[in-house]
């Protein structure tokens, strides 16, 4: 069975949203809003896995999802009211988490969120080793900033990752020095693209990604939101898949035309 942290994340978000304004429900968690053992067993039971069948991977994935909510500022470690809660309430403090004020506000908008397995997107993008470290770094940052709801930065990094694909194809076809020479000129991106390939589908995919990067880079307030960032990530994945599948054709050297000597 494949374990997806994002599915656990969504389970936790749904649960926390249901109790955020229910004081009675919040009091059932040993002085905190989230007592991990209770929800851990409930979630895996829904997946057909009993507490006896849980492995370190099952438990670790659940705590990873909790950690993500802490990183987003939705949860914090410990009791709801630390000053009123003594050691007598239990020593397993590392299993107890409470909602922050910001977290309650974040959960109010949780129903409007697009339910996306961003972890799966990260796995898919990570498989494209052909495009080099620059692509991997930028794709990782595009996914990471999406996770933290920094959608403007996610679009920028998606566009940068797409350009890393263009450069990797250029290096394979024209060589490193020639590729960088063309790329660094004014309108270098367009010039390099024309020198590499007349492939319409590749050019179209890359132009969409260039739009996201250029739109995000303008020095003005942006209205880029979650749907835009997810669209940029999806288009980046499609560009990478197409480039991988057609690598030989895209990087094929143009045969020199031999003219007869006069």
Kindly summarize this structure in a few lines.
By secondary structure, this protein is mainly α.
Give short descriptive properties of this protein.
262 residues; mainly alpha; 3% strand; elongated; disordered C terminus
Calculate the mean pLDDT score and round it: 82
What proportion strand? Answer: under 5%
Q: What is the topology, as strand order, of the major beta sheet?
A: 1-3-2
- Tell me the distance between the termini: 71 Å
The number of distinct helices, counting runs of at least 4 residues, comes to 13
Low-confidence stretches: 255-260
Largest sheet: 3 strands, antiparallel
Query: By helix and strand content, what is the structural category?
Result: mainly alpha
Radius of gyration: 24 Å
Number of distinct beta strands: 3
Residue share in helices?
55-70%
What is the general shape? Answer: elongated
In N-to-C order, the SSE pattern is: HHEHHEEHHHHHHHHH
Query: Quaternary state, please?
Result: single chain
């Amino acid at each position: 069975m494949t374990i997806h942290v994002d599915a656990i994340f969504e389970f936790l978000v749904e649960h926390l949203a249901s109790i955020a304004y229910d004081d009675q429900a919040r009091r059932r968690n040993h002085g905190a809003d989230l007592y991990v053992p209770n929800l851990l067993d409930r979630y895996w039971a829904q997946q057909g896995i009993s507490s006896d069948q849980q492995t370190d991977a099952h438990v670790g994935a659940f705590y990873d999802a909790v950690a993500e909510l802490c990183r987003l500022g939705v949860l914090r470690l410990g009791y709801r009211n630390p000053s009123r809660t003594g050691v007598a309430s239990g020593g397993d403090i590392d299993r107890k988490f409470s909602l922050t004020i910001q977290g309650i506000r974040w959960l109010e908008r949780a129903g409007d969120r697009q339910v996306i397995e961003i972890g799966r997107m990260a796995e898919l993008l990570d498989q494209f080793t052909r495009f080099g470290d620059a692509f991997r770094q930028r794709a990782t940052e595009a996914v990471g900033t999406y996770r933290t709801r920094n959608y403007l930065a996610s679009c920028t990094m998606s566009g940068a990752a797409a350009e890393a694909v263009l450069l990797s194809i250029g290096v394979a076809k024209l060589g490193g020095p020639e590729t960088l020479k063309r790329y660094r000129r004014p309108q270098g991106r367009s010039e390099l693209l024309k020198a590499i390939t007349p492939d319409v589908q590749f050019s179209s995919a890359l132009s969409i990604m260039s739009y996201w990067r250029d739109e995000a880079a303008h020095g003005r307030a942006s209205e880029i939101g979650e749907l835009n960032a997810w669209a940029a990530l999806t288009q980046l994945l499609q560009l990478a898949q197409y480039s991988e599948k057609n690598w030989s054709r895209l990087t094929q050297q143009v045969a020199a035309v031999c003219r007869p000597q006069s």
